[in-house]
Amino acid sequence: MNKLFTISLVLLVLLCVSCENKVSVPTQEIADEDSDVIPDDDADSGNELISDLKIEENKENSLSCRLTFSTTDERKTFVKYYSDTHKGYKIAEKEGKNDHYFFLWGMRENLDYTIEIYSDEEEPELLATTEFHSGKAPSYLPLMSLTEHVAEKTSEGFVLFQYAATTFEHIFPVAVMVDTDGYVVWYYEYDPWYASSFGDVAWNPENQTILIALTKDSSAADSLAEEAIKIDLEGNILWEAPGIKSYYYGPGSWNHAYYMMNDGSVTFPQVIYDGCIVTDRVVNLDADTYGEIWSWDYRDYFEKPDCSENTSGDVWLDWTHTNSVTMYKEEGIVYINSRNFSTLFKIDMSSGAIIWRLGKDGDFMFIGDNEYPWFEVSHDPEINGVNGNKVIFYDNGSLERGFTRIVEYTIDESNMTAEISFEFDGSQLDKRWWSEYWGDADRLENDNIFVTAGFYDMQQISRFFEVTPDGEIVWELLFEKTDDWQVSLYKADKFVPPLEFIK
User: Fold this and answer.
1) Are 165 and 186 within 8 A, CB to CB?
2) In whole angstroms, what is the distance from residue 485 CA to residue 457 CA?
3) What are the phi and psi torsion angles at 95 (to 5°)?
């Protein structure tokens, strides 16, 4: 027979402003609290399988919560959580234990989620049920509109991104995830005085962490402040870069891309001001001290341009403009993409020698009759492996060409030839676009390509889209734009989260 526990009126009043969570097991039920507990000493409950069941809202992200409970014997368990309008997810433990902890995330805003706890056996047993009401994402997030979604052709997963804007008052240091239905399911805010926005975010599937590079404001030039942090999905800061006195794109600081390597070191293009030019060198540094492990400098291999006529000192010649680095440390190979050279370099890390150059003035002979055989001022090439024979570019395109495209090259290092194996510019769908700056294109597990097309051009609308090998856009998310400002996007990751989607 169920036993009803009463809670004092004072406690009930104090808790009424929090999320409503009801907890129950097959033989008992307790009233609503933020941290609900089923007492161990309930002799009349008839249930000795589970105790100390608690739910705690995550203050860093109200679209998630922490679930803890105990079992009298060691059990491997799993949890399902879902709502009336969201099918939700399943998370399972890998081994049996007495004290259990689950971080439940990926929820949509302002929904009542049912949480079911099961023993993970051949015939699972329902141990307990509870409820959690998800909160709201930050009110300043831009409006997003899902305009295409062919579910059977779209890669299931989350999109992780940061965004900028054409006006400063709409820029915030926040990272966001959306699901394939276009709903916000995760966010992270970080607001030190010196960070005007996030410059780069990246998901690491091996340890389920997120690296966030900070766009430090120029006011931080004389203050020691970190350039990057690493967090877990709960929003806990696991690592901070050493504080340096500089700002984004300032002397010695990072630009465009910031990476954490498998060995725990960090890699990025480091800004160099030299006379009247601004260039960069690629550095691999100790993550905790910024001690240099390896570097590569354009000035060792190319003659600097002459800009001696610039005597004012307030106009700099942007010479190399590195925007992507792909490093394979164990194999001793690094790929460096220079936007302004319109060239992808393959570098031998042991000697610094250029193995080859891919691009208009490079070492490969183009095969084919494409009117525009080579990429121009491209962003974020994706190489399929240390000696991969395929490279995907977000090919921004020159002003003369007037349109952007996604282009994949198949290269033959033996014969030093290159040919276009995939091209998409939207022209067949009347969706041709041009982004002079920014952009990203990544191959997904289902062989689609996920594209970030972000603009400062007020005549266009920033968007994410997913295109199939046949050139069909099967998913598209548009971002807010007004007459006065619009959202701008640099790049994004689409990934399969460590959650099992309930079908």
Assistant:
1) no
2) 10
3) -150, 160
For the chain, the domain total comes to: 1
pTM of the model: 0.89
Backbone angles phi, psi at 419, to 5 degrees: -140, 155
CA 143 vs. chain centroid, Å, equals: 19
* CATH number of domain containing 112: 2.60.40.10
Per residue in 298-310, pLDDT tens?
Answer: 999 999 998 877 6
Residue whose pair of structure tokens reads 């399969």 in the numeric block: 496
User: 29 lies in a domain?
Assistant: yes
Query: Can you tell me which residue has the tokens 């968007």?
Result: 463
What distance in Å separates the CA atoms of residue 496 and residue 168, rounded to the nearest whole number? 32
- Looking at the DSSP bridge assignments, the partners of residue 266 are 260, 285
Structural domain contains residue 440:
no
Half-sphere exposure of 204 (CA within 13 A, CB side): 17
Percentage of the chain lying above the pLDDT 90 cut: 80
Q: Are 130 and 65 in contact (CB under 8 A)?
A: no
Is 212 within the bounds of a domain? no
DSSP string, 413-477: TTTTEEEEEEEE-SGGGT--B--SS--EEEE-TTS-EEEEE--S-TTS--EEEEE-TTS-EEEEE
Asked whether residue 282 is domain-assigned, the answer is: no
Summarize pLDDT for 148-190 with one digit per residue, the tens.
999 999 999 999 999 999 898 898 999 999 999 999 999 999 9
**Number of residues that this document lists for the chain:** 503
Distances (CA, A) of 148 to 153, 154, 180, 362: 11, 10, 10, 38
In the block, residue with structure tokens 């699901």: 179
Q: State the Cα–Cα distance between residues 310 and 25, nearest whole angstrom.
A: 76
φ/ψ bin of 416: left (φ > 0), alpha (ψ from -120 to 50), beta (otherwise): left
Cβ neighbours of residue 388 under 8 Å, at least 6 residues apart? none
CA distance 39 to 16: 22
